[in-house]
Each structure stands twice: as structure tokens, then as C-alpha cells.
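U., I forgot to send this yesterday:
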Amino acid sequence: MLVYRHATLITPDEVIENGSLIVGDGRIRAIGGPDLPLPGDADVIDAKGLVLAPGFIDLQVNGGFGLDFTADPATIWDVAARLPRYGVTNFLPTIITSPLETIHQAQDVLMAGPPPGWSGARPLGLHVEGPFLNREKKGAHNPDYLRPPELADVAGWSPDSFIRLVTLAPELPGALDVIDALATRGVVVSAGHSTASFEAAAAGFDSGARYATHLFNAMPALHHREPGLVAAALADSRVTVGLIPDGLHVHPALVNLVWQLLGRERLNLVTDAMAAMGMSPGEYLLGDFRVTVDEMSARLPDGTLAGCVLSLDAILRAFRAFTGASLADAVATVTTTPARLLGVEDRMGSLRPGAAADMVLLTPEGEVIETLVAGERLYRGR
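Result:
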């Protein structure tokens, strides 16, 4: 048994000051105040002055620590083992536009499970970003592999086959049928890398799409007479919006505006992290492309942004600086909101009795002190 005492606890319903939390058998057993009865044989941790929050969930991770999932899906477990240092306890490895065989290989990696003795952040399934994207908004995706969405290509794709999230362009011929088929099977479908008009985007959401991939990026700018995908996603209360608030992908003022519009219930912060996350500046892979990385950005030779180099805890701190959001509200955008989107809120994404003991201990400024996955302390900082 493990007990945290005197911590500020971020629960789904309230922030508990001077709180206590008991962990046992990989799950949260009890939550309460300073008078919560404690088991006699527990390892007690005094967390006074610190914040205990649910473990972070990142829905868009292309790689990290010098490794790229699309170039080599087998590296998923290597990156996952190191993500807890950033507070990440669950994530979606992201396969970008590539031959369909690469997606199958990544499915096989997850199906085979981790190597013996492995521990780390849990992959919840794949985020397949492409190849059903609009060529005009391909971003850093290889156009040689782009293809129209067809039902035959996604036959068998479901959470049971480790496909959890699929990004596609809803305006492409055949896209609405694919959206409907995937959504019916429980896959979260996202609109992205798209030139969709407002009407085409709305049709995608009516067909079952429920997410927008990195809003503003790889889609037409918001226009007062042609509002497009951006406005359709913001206006539809059924849609959760992904955003990369690193100060480069979206202007800080616009990050704040989206926050004011959506709040913690519909905004999901992601990293879109690529191989350079956790590494020094240099050259790294994103799929087939060599990407030049400096201290803040990753770009193709023509200047196109190619993913992000920040970790999720750094993204969270940047977001708070841009918006003035409380730590509890910011944490919700990377915990309860993505868990609800994926339909796993009964198991993770919140501090409540019965949930998995996926937790992160933070300073009030959002620096990661300790990360637990299923009650196991996988990262300990200062």
C-alpha cells in the first residue's frame, strides 16, 4: 500500500487541499482529507506543497528520444518506457502517412505486447494520421503514400485491433462512408489535414467524426465568409478539439481565444511530439523525411513545421502562460477530456476510487516530481 498525505488533489469534481490518497494493487483505494484512516502497513509519502493529479494522456505522439514510430514501429515500447518522466502514463503512438503495411506492423507490435520486464506509459492503441489526407494540406506527410479513403482499407480497424483514432480529410470522396464505419466500431475519427468547407466538415461530424486534429494547422485559416473546418469544429458541441500550444503552431492569443470558447470539457492539448523530443538540436526522422530541429521547432527544408519538440508537461506550462488557466483546468485538458473522448474515463484520467493509479506528482508550477503507472513509481525527480 502507498499513501500520499498533505497533497493538493485534483479530482474530477473538486480540488482537495491537504488531501490524502491511498493506492493498493495498482488502483486508487480511497481519497479524502487529512483525517482519512490509513492502513498500518502503508508506505506514507508527505506531499505537502505538491499537487497530485491524474497521469497525463497524449493522443498524438510520433516518437521521441531519437526514435520515430513510422520509420520503425518496434520503437513504440522504447519511447513508452521513457514518457513517464514527463508525467505521461497513457498515450496513442501515432503512425503518419505511410504504406498501409506500416500500420499493420504497428498493430502487430501492440498485439505482441511489451518485452519481458518492461515498464512505462501504456499505449492505448494507435493514432493513424493518414494516408487519407488532402494533398493540398499534407504538411510534413509524404504525398507518395496519400490515397482516398476506402472501406476495404479500414476493414477490421477497431479498438480491438489497436486502432483508436484515425485522422482523415472529410471532404475526400468516400470519406463519409469510412467515418461512419469506423465510428460504428468505436474508433474515434478526427478531421484534419483538410481543405473542408464548413458544410463538408459539418457533414463529417454528422457522420460520426468527433475530434479535430491540431486545430488551425494543416487546414484553411478561419475566414469570415468561408469559415471552414476551424469554425465547424469550434461550433459543434459534439466535437473535442486538439491543439498544440507550443507558441509556434498557434499564436498564444489564439490559444487563449480557443480556451475561452471551449474550456476544459472540449479542449485537448497534445504534443505532436517527434523524434527530437528529449534530445538536443540536430537532424531527426519524421516518417521518410529528415527534419532539422533547433531549440524550439522542427522543420522540413522548405520551412514547414514537422511536429513538435516539447514534452506534454512543457506544453501544459506554456498553455497556462498563454491563458492564465488554473493548474486544475489545464490538467483536465490532458486527463479527463482525452479519457472521455476515448471512452476510457471509467478506468483512467481521473483521481477517484477504483480508477487505475496512474498519477503524477507536480509542483504548483507544473514541474513533474514523480509519475506512477498502475501504482508503480516509474519516474522520480527531485
